[in-house]
Amino acid sequence: MNRVCSIFWQLLQLFPRLEFEHLVRQHRAERHARGFTCWGQFIAMMFCQLGQAHSLREICGGLASCEGKLRHLGLPQAPKRSTLAYANQHRPWQVFQAVFQQLYHRCQSLLNPPRPFRFRYRLLTLDATMIDLCASLFDGAAYKRTKGAVKLPLLLDHQGYLLQFVVITPGKTQEIEVARRLRFQPGTIVIFDRAYVDYAWFERLTRLRCDAHCRVREERPLPQRGHILADQIIQLGSHWYRQPSPLRRLVVEVPEWDQPLVLLTNQLGLGPTTVARIYRERWQVEVFFRALKQNLRIKTFVGTSPNALKIQIWTALIAILLLKYLQLRASYGWSLFNLVALLRQQLFSYRDLFAWLNQPFEPPPDPASTQAMQLPLLAGVEA
Question: 219 lies in which domain range?
Fold first, then answer.
């Protein structure tokens, strides 16, 4: 069936229609709908992300130009700009958040990507990025006097570099406030920077501030090779608070930096070089932020209401998760930039998605020759 359906349709098969409709009913998203469904809204916003549309006019015009190819997607006709704008302003963004969570669990079950380290623990990076907004257009996202912003605290799973958890908060929200609400499975290793300093939270996870008070209890032997300058067991605290559990302080030489890097961890059993490599993995979250902002529509918005803003951000997060899934499934070595650029041109092409992913520059099979090979041979006998 994939041979006669568009690539866009095949991408939407990762979002089962029955599960999507269940989420719509659960959030009562269509209680005031008049013809334009949440599924149609989802298709339009995914076209905004994957088709690189900059405005409502481009979304609706792009879909209208493919009018004969929309019905097989479950969209009878292209929406009007006012219809899509009204849906983005009033329908609950929580539906798209739930779709994102379902997609993450589905990708996790379908994929078995290699682990970056040999240990069996799950490795996560906790970080946040800022999305700048115009304060005069987005009243609910005030950050500074003339500047607006929203913040995306998130967890990146290093097994496949899939986005596991994300929330959308105002730009003034402190990152540690979100971190305190998170719960991790036993054995999980979490990487983060100094923005998450909280002594009471250090019982599970932490990194040391430059002005933190500590007492060295043990000096551990250093490896003969590598860039480890110190490996210490310390007691963290001051005259008003003392950390109950001992922590480990590592000083790592970074050739590109003038000052050494100081790491703090409660992992006492891992080798010092392994701990340094784990922290180096944190750079992958910066790569993720750059890919998200450069390849998807998350810096310019098609609506100015808080609800429309969140819907567009969630569809961008759904799209980046979908692209990561395709990147892991393909045997061809795609960069995310090239995948987005070429997929935009192939959305309404009628060819097998994974055949194209594995061999993107091979021509598709000739439908005339394929049909001729499948025609039965009929022998006529004259009376």
Answer: 197-275
Contact 231, 240 (CB under 8 A): no
Please check whether residue 315 is in contact with residue 43, taking contact to mean a CB–CB distance below 8 angstroms.
no
**Distance, CA of 156 to CA of 162 (rounded, Å):** 6
309-319 pLDDT per residue, tens: 999 999 999 99
Q: What is the pTM of this model?
A: 0.83
How many whole angstroms separate alpha carbon 122 and alpha carbon 156?
A: 11
Q: 88 and 10 in one domain?
A: yes
Question: Comparing 170-184, 189-203, 266-280, 363-377, which segment has the lowest mean pLDDT?
Answer: 363-377
**Do residues 149 and 90 make contact, with C-beta atoms less than 8 angstroms apart?**
no
Which residues on neighbouring strands pair with residue 156, listed in sequence order?
Answer: 125, 163
Assess whether 28 and 83 both reside in one domain: yes
CA 274 to the chain's CA centroid: 26
- Residue at 372 is within a domain: no
Q: Count other C-beta atoms under 10 Å from residue 57's C-beta.
A: 11
Q: How many domains is the chain partitioned into structurally? A: 2
